[in-house]
Amino acid sequence: MFKRLLLLTLLLVLLAGTNISAQEAGGLVITNVWARPTGVKAESMGDAMATPEATAEPMGNAGHMGQMHAVGNGTVSAAYMQITNQTGQTVRLVSAASTVATVTEVHEVTMVDNVMQMHPVEGGIEIPAGETVELRPGGYHIMLIDLLHDLYAGEALAVTLTFEMADGTTQDRIVGAAIQDEPPSASPLLITDAWARPTGVRTMNDMAEATAEPMGGMAHGMGDGAVSAAYMYIENLGDAEDRLVAARTDVAGLVEIHEVNMVDNVMQMRPVEGGIVLPVGDVVELRPGGYHVMLMDLHHDLYVDEAISLTLVFESGLELTVGVPVVEPQ
Ligand SMILES: [Cu+2]
User: Fold this and answer.
1) E strands along 36-152, which residues?
2) How far is the CA of 121 from the centre of ligand 1 (A)?
3) Digit-coded pLDDT (tens) for 1-54
4) How many Å lie between the centroid of ligand 1 and the Cα of residue 284?
5) Quick one: CATH architecture of 24-181?
6) How far apart are CA 287 and CA 234, in angstroms?
7) By CB distance 3.0 to 4.6 Å, which of 160, 177, 254, 288 could disulfide with 33?
8) CA Rg value for the chain
9) Start-end of CATH 2.60.40.1890 domains in the chain
10) How far is the CA of 65 from the centre of ligand 1 (A)?
């Protein structure tokens, strides 16, 4: 009886909620999000960002500078990505925010008198309908100024992007940036709209009692045993079928590719035999109540505004590491 209760509880947690996706909205497709580690800043950031001259001058006004040094450690990093606009109207990336940095700005690098400078983009980055804008080293980037802690390769951070739509309204999108030294390499598989469920009860009041204690120890017999799940879209742009067969992350002791199905009128979830098939040209959705990447035996709680690094392993041998923001189901 108790065991059944646990199972139901787990399912409730995993079924509740869904997230708005670019594909569903026909909206903004944001991919290949990554950010520089800070540990080897001097070597990897390049002249524009690593040298004292570069970071001291162009970054902003006096008030901004004052703010910079009040809280964090003065270290900077930058996040990059590709944004494809499928909304049918021109949009602008007008601002960004991240909990890892005291100040987050939308920047560009320009040459002024043969000197590279970076500065906030006036009016934001314009993304015409149907086009892709790339944020990359030496060009547009999300500047993370005065970090609250160092960024290490193999981890991830969450960035909230605010877009201004043609009608003047704004739309926020939360993305995860994988922290790594190099840009993601081109891949036939496109991962978008990844998110993971927060753990702990503080974000899900109605499930407080149900999720409070027993899930882990009982279910898996190790660690504090909290569970979560990650969801996303995977589009196969290649010319061969592939399969998502496994995944791994530092934050979980056990990661499995799961599906939910009905057995004798009872919802159950279980590992997907042979992995999730990714047909050529198709977009496969991992979502609550369906396919998901099950994160078990978490080493620590997952909180909103953070992100985890998740490596997806495919049958073809391809491995993709993505940043997955922790987001409350909507
Ligand atoms: Cu599961």
Assistant:
1) 76-85, 91-97, 101-112, 115-120, 125-127, 132-135, 141-147
2) 43
3) 444 444 444 544 455 544 444 444 558 999 999 999 996 434 444 444 444 433
4) 17
5) Sandwich (2.60)
6) 11
7) 177
8) 21
9) 2-17+192-325, 24-181
10) 46
How many angstroms does the Cα of residue 67 sit away from the middle of ligand 1?
A: 44
Domain 2-17+192-325 listed as CATH 1.10.530.10: no
Write the DSSP symbol of residue 302: -
Question: Residue 261 C-alpha to ligand 1 middle, in angstroms?
Answer: 11
- 293 CA to middle of ligand 1, Å? 7
Sign of the dihedral defined by the CA atoms of residues 321, 326, 329, 330, in that order: negative
Distance 151 CA to ligand 1 centre (A): 30
Burial class (CB in 10 A: 0-12, 13-18, 19+), 65: middle
By 3-state DSSP, what share of the chain in percent is helix, strand and coil, each rounded to 5? 15, 45, 40
Instruction: Give 313's strand partners.
Output: 246, 319
Q: Which helix (H) or strand (E) holds 209?
A: helix 208-211
